[in-house]
Amino acid sequence: MSGRIKQDITALALLILGGAGAASCSEDASDTDAADFAILMDETWQDRTLEESGLLQWIQGGEDALPIPAQVVVYRKGCGVCAHHLSSLDRTAGRVPLVLIRVPDERDADEETDARDFAPENHVHLELIALPRGYGFTAPATFFVDATRTIRQVRRAVELSERR
């Protein structure tokens, strides 16, 4: 799918989901205070810097919270595929910090199991800023952030669930 088509689909989704209060992480949406919904476009993150990806602006604590380099997993609390992926991570690896970024969801309080409980103990835990209507995102996504702050080796939910 071409970049232009993706932009058109994103624009249509934003319009349908609330227009002015929505933002896309593939475009400049620096006013996080005004947003009530955001779409995380992980299919656009490969070979982009953290700043270019748009993800950084939604992380609580911002730029200073994320160690560089890092192995990152973006997950949802009640996600079974996320729990399975986190349980499969090498508990002895540690060349770079493992960073888990939770995507908040209005259903989190109802979830009895937290996917994070299945992760290796030595990890950094971050969360995205809570938005009134949440995030459009299919979890999990995993990637490596290198010393130049560039996102590499993106694996998306579909790929990770197929390995299950």
Descriptive account of the structure:
By secondary structure, this protein is an alpha/beta fold. The chain has a single domain (3-162), classed as Glutaredoxin (3-Layer(aba) Sandwich), CATH 3.40.30. The protein is 21% helix and 20% strand. The protein contains 4 helices and 8 strands; from the N terminus they run H-E-E-H-E-H-E-E-E-E-E-H. Strands 5-4-3-7-8 form a 5-stranded mixed β-sheet. The radius of gyration is 15 Å and the shape is globular.
Number of helices: 4
- Class, according to the CATH hierarchy? Alpha Beta
Structural class: alpha/beta
Q: What proportion of the residues form beta strands (DSSP E)?
A: 15-25%
| Overall residue-averaged pLDDT value | 80
Largest sheet, in brief, is: 5 strands, mixed
H/E element string?
HEEHEHEEEEEH
Major sheet: arrangement of strands: 5-4-3-7-8
Shape: globular
Helical content (DSSP H or I, runs of 4+)? 10-25%
Could you name the CATH topology? Glutaredoxin
Distance between the termini: 26 Å
List keywords for this structure.
disordered N terminus, 20% strand, five-stranded mixed sheet, single chain, Glutaredoxin, alpha/beta, 164 residues, 8 strands
